[in-house]
Structure formats: structure tokens, C-alpha cells
Design a protein that fits this description.
Strands 14, 15, 16, 17, 18, 19, 20 and 21 form an 8-stranded mixed β-sheet that branches. The chain has a 5-stranded antiparallel β-sheet with strand order 1-2-4-10-7, covered by helices on one side. With 710 residues, it is α+β, with helices and mostly antiparallel strands. Helix 6 runs antiparallel to helix 12 (501-519), helix 8 (443-450) packs across helix 9 and helix 13 (522-542) runs antiparallel to helix 14 (549-567). The longest helix has 33 residues, at 337-369. The chain has 4 domains: 15-153, Sandwich (Immunoglobulin-like); 176-275, Immunoglobulin-like (Sandwich), CATH 2.60.40; 298-500, no CATH class; 579-709, Glutaredoxin (3-Layer(aba) Sandwich), CATH 3.40.30. It has 19 helices and 26 strands. The protein is elongated. The model is unreliable at 1-18, 405-419 and 575-588 (pLDDT under 50).
């Protein structure tokens, strides 16, 4: 019996029976050691591993606006030492308007332990830890841990699984910053951090955030508007609630995401920025919480998308296609109701399938590149050329140069069937293609929401927009009372059909003009040469029929001509160019007469000087943008009002891809252009104006500028 009790006491004192695991309602905590056997006087690492209940979180050393950091109180043998916790890089949590810093899912808090130099026998590590775990409510929890490690002449490593755990924990730690840093304080008392990381590419970095190591000197911010310039990373901050003076050094962790060839990589750096009295930053123009910026729910986004799709039917880019479809529908007047229903359903299916395909493309690009915007395809010169071809072929079809099928029951890439169903379907496809450069009211907020949400929400919002676009025609095809309002078929149908060719030719000219902005004068050669080849192919196919040898030769020549037309796309540079890199960079994309080219630095400078600022984000392929310029921004009364009010007018050309403009759109929850910002004199945030402008709206905004500022 005595031997059995002695054996039992040895087992209870062994590591396997030590209380190294504590399970609470929300956190499983375990004290683990990187070594299985310790060597007297030789430091080693232990970790408090916490597995956190889904949707709950614990806190970092600076918890943010609320919360408490995890604490560990050690009880060690005489001569032993425990260093402070080494914290992994934190995450940001925004709950009910409160911003906190901490950890979700799992964290490992590392501590270095130094055993006594005269240790003989096992080393007993006893610790009491307490932490706060929160979701909608916060619950304080605690645990008592004990870990008994045998000692020996040399330290022996723990199991491979434990060693892997420590390797992963070290990868989660911030590395020492390779760049010097300093900070200055503005006259208003707000600090600005400057990390002198010269040579970084702005379009390769995203999600830049500085986590202050201590609460007090710097306010906890839900969003920091960091910018990457030639001098490095500049992060405007807000003064915290501490009543003391700003410290001589500001310590913290800089976290950012970098795009690499292997995908996006999250990086974290510990840095300490010295206070530089000579660095007095001017007030910066904050885009956060801009007036008119909308934070909407999924239900609101679906409603806005439906309304935006409905209004899209009235936009100039879509109207010619819808007019063609209405003319085709009038031709069906007097036919069986079932034929009309089939036509309406086919058109709706074409619209919805196209929007679903667009949603899939958006999700795929977002997974690979990290961001995508509405109308992104029009930033590709190859796409612009292909759409110019499409508009040209549709125009030829409407002019009667060629027919596919016995009659025109719908136009969509020249595909028409005798019953009209195929034509109706592809008319829906064509309507979606030409709609993408347009932005209607309600669309901006819905698209900004959709393109930043998980895949199911993205698909749902885009399909709701497609339903809105198709709804008028679908309702017409399903409602006999509405059909009776349609004019009866007659000779006017052929005249209308031929007339509608001219808006398509005009759209072709517009796309060639867009192509010129993207590629320079060579774009005209490729586009017009390709159209000649396509017209030649159509002529060859029309001059004969049957199955003779000559017919096959003509078909072969026609196919070769079409292939040569599409080969022009191989000559066009489709790299992600910026607006300034296209041929004729000084005038790329849109007219800058009377406007300065947009940059964050110029915008911030003008706002800091207290001047009124108007920013126009536009693109050559955006019809809504061009219409707004003609009817609101470039009319004599508005130009005179801008001049009298001393407004700094900035224009951001997004015809080609521009990382700086894309960043601004993303910050404001917008998916594309147009976007109009107006700063009243001295304002620290802009007002977002509607997507459709009027002369009276602009004059009303300018009239609000105080007389003293004019």
C-alpha cells in the first residue's frame, strides 16, 4: 500500500496530471511549454493558448475604447523569472460604434521563463490568469494553471505538435519595423504618424492601421485614412483622452496588407516614433463619415438596387436598346398572349443571367485581386474595342445590311430566331452590357454595399438590380391592359428600326473615342480597320447562297476577315495602366480645362487652407458623367459661380485604372463613378452630391458659401 501511494504521488506531480487546462463557458485556456525538460538557468518559452468561442473576442494590451487586457500573475520558485507577455498582432472589432483591439478564434500569449541557476528537481510553474471575453456582453473569466517540468543537464524539446504551435505563434508576432518613424502634432493637437518607408507602391498596400501600444495619447479610431506617398506611409490620428502631454516616443504596431505575386499577405511591425517638433502637420481632409455617405443593410441594398435598376431604363446608355426591344414588342401586338409572355420571360432571363455572370466575375476578381468596381471592364482597352465591334454590328443589323432569321424580334449580338425568344434573351444581354458605364440614383450605395460583402450578398444585390432593369418590359409582356396601349404594327416599324441604328452608330463612335483615351491614336486604326473587316465578312456572306465551291470560299474568307478583326485585340496593351500613362497623358481620358488633376495631397492642401473644394470623379466611358458635365458643371452660370466663390476644382480621371481614385471610392463605399464631393470652407469632411446633377443643385451648394470666403 505504501508503494502504491508513493507511485500515485509521483504521477500527480508529473506534467500529465498538472492542471494546465482550464475550460470556461467561452474560452478554453491551456498553459503549454516549448520544452519537455528544462535546464537550470537557461531561458525557455511558455504560452497561454486560448481558444475563443465563435463571435467572441478577448483583448490586446491596449484594449481600445473599452475592455481589459489579459493578465497573468506568476508564482515561481525563488530565483526564477517571468518576462512580460509578448503580444501577437491584434485585430480590430467595431461593435455598436465602439472600437476595440483584441483576438478572436485563437491566440497564444508568449512568456519567456528563466529557471533558477541552482534548480534541482522539477520546476513548478503556477499562474493565475484573468481575461475579459466579449460579444454583445462582456464576461470576466479566470483560471489557475500549474505546469510541472522536470529538469536535466540539457533542455529537451516538447512534442512536434507543441513545437508547431509555437512556430505559428511566433509568425503571429509583429516584427521590428525596418523603417524609421516620427510623428508631429498639428496646431489642433492631433498627431500624424510618418513611417519613412520610401519606395512603397500605393496600389500594393491596403488595410493600413496603426495600433497604439498604450491607451490615452492616441484616440481609438474605427478607421484611419492612411496614405502612401513618396515620403512613406502617413497616418493622420486623433488626440486621445489622456490629459498629459504627448509622449517623447509613440509606440505601437503597424498592420497592413500587401499584394504579392502569391496573393495578399498580412504584415505587422512594431515601431516607435519619436516626437519631431519641426513636423507640424496641417489639418487633413478626412473622407471618413462624409455627409451623404450611406451605411445600409442588406434589405436596404436590395431595395436600392431594384430602384436603381428601374431608373437605369431611363439612362441614355440603355435607352436605345430598350427602344429596339419595345419596337420588337410592338411587332408582336395582336399575337397570342403566350408568345408575348415568352418574349418577356426570355428578355428577363437574359438580363438576370448576365447580372449573375457579372456577379461571378466580380467574386472571382475580388478573390484574386482584392477589389473590383462597377464598370471595371470598361477600363480595359480590349473590352472597349470588342464593345465598339458589337455596337457596329448591331447598327448594321438595324440598318438592314444583314438579317439573321426571318424578322427582327430582338437584337442581341445579332442573334434572332423566328419565334423571337433567342432575340429577346440576347437583347437582355446587350442591355446589361451597355448599362455598366451608367450609374443611376440609388445605384451607388447599393453597388458599394454589394462589392464589399460576401458572395451571397453580392449575387443577391446584383440580381435585384437586374430585376429592376427587366421589370418594365416583364410587366408589359404579362399585362394585357398595358399591351393594348402599344401602337399597332405597321410600316412605321421598319422606319423606327432603321432610325435606331443611328444611336448604335453613335455609341460605336463613343467607344472608339474611349479607346483613343486608353491607347492613343493607334486605337482608331485597330477599331476602324476591324470594322471594315467585319463589314467585308458580312458582304461576302450576303452575295451568295447554296453549297457551291464559291460559297465555301466566301465563307472561309469571311471567317478569316473576322479573325483578323479580333486579332487587333492582341496589339492593344491591356496592362493595368493608370490614367496618366495612356498616350497623350496630359489630356488622357477627359477634359481638364479649368480643372486641376486630382490628388490626395492637393485636396488636403486646399482643405487645410480653408478653401471650398469640389472634386469630380469621372471617366470617358461613363455616360452619366459626361451628361452631368454638359448640363451642370460646364454651363456658363456654374463656371462663373465656381470662379466667384474661389472654389478649387479637382478632377479625378478614372478612364484607366487609378489606385488613388479607387482607394477614395472604396473609403466612401462607392463602387464606381460618377462621384462628386464638395467641401464647404473650413469643413473637415465633404458632402457627397447625387449621381445626377443639375445646374440649380450646384448653384444652391455654392450659394451656401459665406460671403467672407468668396
Amino acid at each position: 500500500m505504501g508503494r502504491f501511494l508513493a507511485f500515485l504521488l509521483v504521477l500527480l506531480a508529473s506534467p500529465a496530471f498538472a492542471q494546465s487546462v482550464v475550460q470556461t463557458d467561452h474560452v478554453r485556456s491551456e498553459l503549454v511549454s516549448e520544452v519537455a525538460t528544462v535546464k537550470p538557468g537557461e531561458p525557455f518559452w511558455v504560452g497561454l493558448r486560448q481558444t475563443i468561442r465563435p463571435k467572441w473576442h478577448t483583448y490586446w494590451k491596449n484594449p481600445g475604447e473599452s475592455g481589459l487586457p489579459t493578465e497573468i500573475a506568476w508564482k515561481l520558485p525563488e530565483g526564477a523569472k517571468a518576462d512580460p507577455i509578448v503580444w501577437p498582432a491584434p485585430s480590430r472589432f467595431d461593435i455598436g460604434g465602439i472600437t476595440n483591439y483584441g483576438f478572436k478564434d485563437e491566440s497564444v500569449l508568449l512568456v519567456r521563463i528563466t529557471p533558477p541557476a541552482n534548480l534541482s528537481g522539477p520546476l513548478t510553474l503556477a499562474a493565475e490568469a484573468n481575461w475579459l471575453v466579449c460579444e454583445d456582453v462582456c464576461i470576466p473569466e479566470e483560471g489557475k494553471f500549474e505546469l510541472v517540468l522536470p529538469s536535466g543537464a540539457a533542455a529537451t524539446p516538447a512534442s512536434p505538435e507543441t513545437r508547431t504551435l509555437f512556430e505559428q505563434a511566433r509568425r503571429a508576432l509583429p516584427t521590428q519595423s525596418p523603417w524609421p518613424a516620427r510623428y508631429g502634432v498639428s496646431k489642433a493637437g492631433d498627431p500624424t504618424l510618418l513611417v519613412e518607408a520610401k519606395g512603397l507602391k500605393a496600389d500594393a498596400l491596403s488595410d493600413i492601421y496603426f495600433f497604439p501600444a498604450e491607451w490615452g495619447p492616441v484616440a481609438t479610431m474605427s478607421k484611419q485614412n492612411a496614405t502612401v506617398t513618396a515620403e512613406g506611409i502617413r497616418i493622420p490620428l486623433k488626440k486621445g483622452d489622456a490629459k498629459t502631454a504627448m509622449p517623447a516616443e509613440l509606440a505601437g504596431t503597424l498592420v497592413l496588407t500587401e499584394k504579392t505575386a502569391d496573393g495578399s499577405v498580412k504584415q505587422a511591425f512594431d515601431l516607435s516614433a519619436k516626437l519631431d517638433p519641426a513636423f507640424v502637420p496641417t489639418a487633413t481632409a478626412s473622407l471618413a463619415n462624409a455627409v451623404g455617405a450611406e451605411e445600409i443593410s442588406l434589405v436596404q441594398a436590395l431595395l436600392f438596387a431594384l430602384l436603381g435598376g428601374l431608373i437605369l431604363n431611363l439612362m441614355p446608355c440603355v435607352f436605345p436598346v430598350l427602344a429596339m426591344k419595345a419596337a420588337a414588342f410592338a411587332r408582336l401586338a395582336g399575337h397570342e398572349q403566350s408568345a408575348m409572355r415568352r418574349d418577356g420571360i426570355a428578355y428577363t432571363a437574359g438580363v438576370l443571367v448576365s447580372f449573375a455572370a457579372m456577379a461571378g466575375t466580380v467574386i472571382a476578381i475580388r478573390s484574386a485581386a482584392g477589389e473590383v468596381s462597377w464598370g471595371f471592364q470598361f477600363q480595359s482597352p480590349v473590352f472597349s474595342l470588342l464593345i465598339a465591334y458589337l455596337f457596329f454590328v448591331v447598327g448594321l443589323n438595324l440598318s438592314g445590311v444583314f438579317e439573321v432569321g426571318g424578322r427582327l424580334a430582338g437584337v442581341g449580338q445579332g442573334l434572332v430566331s423566328r419565334g423571337g425568344t433567342t432575340g429577346a434573351f440576347f437583347t437582355g444581354v446587350l442591355a446589361v452590357i451597355v448599362a455598366t458605364p451608367c450609374t443611376a440614383p440609388f445605384m451607388a450605395a447599393a453597388l458599394g454595399f454589394a462589392l464589399s460583402q460576401p458572395a451571397p450578398a453580392t449575387v443577391a444585390v446584383l440580381l435585384a438590380m437586374g430585376l429592376g432593369l427587366a421589370l418594365p418590359y416583364l410587366a408589359l409582356s404579362m399585362t394585357p391592359a398595358l399591351q393594348r396601349l402599344m401602337p399597332r404594327p405597321g410600316a412605321w416599324m421598319d422606319r423606327l428600326r432603321q432610325f435606331l441604328a443611328f444611336p448604335m452608330y453613335a455609341s460605336t463612335v463613343w467607344m472608339i473615342w474611349v479607346l483613343i483615351q486608353q491607347t492613343g491614336a493607334d486605337g482608331v486604326l485597330y477599331a476602324l480597320g476591324g470594322m471594315i473587316l467585319i463589314a467585308f465578312a458580312i458582304w461576302l456572306l450576303r452575295i451568295g447562297s447554296g453549297a457551291s465551291a464559291g460559297t465555301w470560299v466566301r465563307r472561309g474568307l469571311a471567317a478569316a476577315a473576322v479573325l483578323l478583326a479580333f486579332a487587333a485585340t492582341l496589339k492593344i496593351d491591356d496592362s493595368p495602366a493608370t490614367a496618366a500613362s495612356a498616350s497623350g497623358a496630359a489630356n488622357a481620358g477627359v477634359s481638364f480645362e479649368g480643372w486641376e488633376r486630382f490628388s490626395r495631397a492637393r485636396m488636403a492642401e486646399a482643405v487645410a487652407e480653408g478653401k471650398p473644394v469640389f472634386v469630380d470623379f469621372t471617366a470617358a466611358w461613363c455616360i452619366t458623367c459626361l451628361v452631368n458635365e454638359r448640363v451642370a458643371l460646364e454651363v456658363p452660370a456654374v463656371r462663373k459661380a465656381f470662379e466667384q466663390a474661389g472654389v478649387v476644382k479637382l478632377k479625378g480621371d478614372w478612364t484607366n485604372r487609378d489606385a488613388e481614385i479607387t482607394g477614395v471610392l472604396k473609403e466612401l463605399g462607392r463602387a464606381g463613378v460618377p462621384l462628386y464631393l464638395f467641401w464647404a470652407p473650413g469643413a473637415d469632411r465633404p458632402k457627397i452630391l447625387p449621381q445626377v446633377l443639375t445646374e440649380s443643385l450646384i448653384l444652391s451648394e455654392l450659394s451656401s458659401i459665406p460671403q467672407a470666403k468668396r
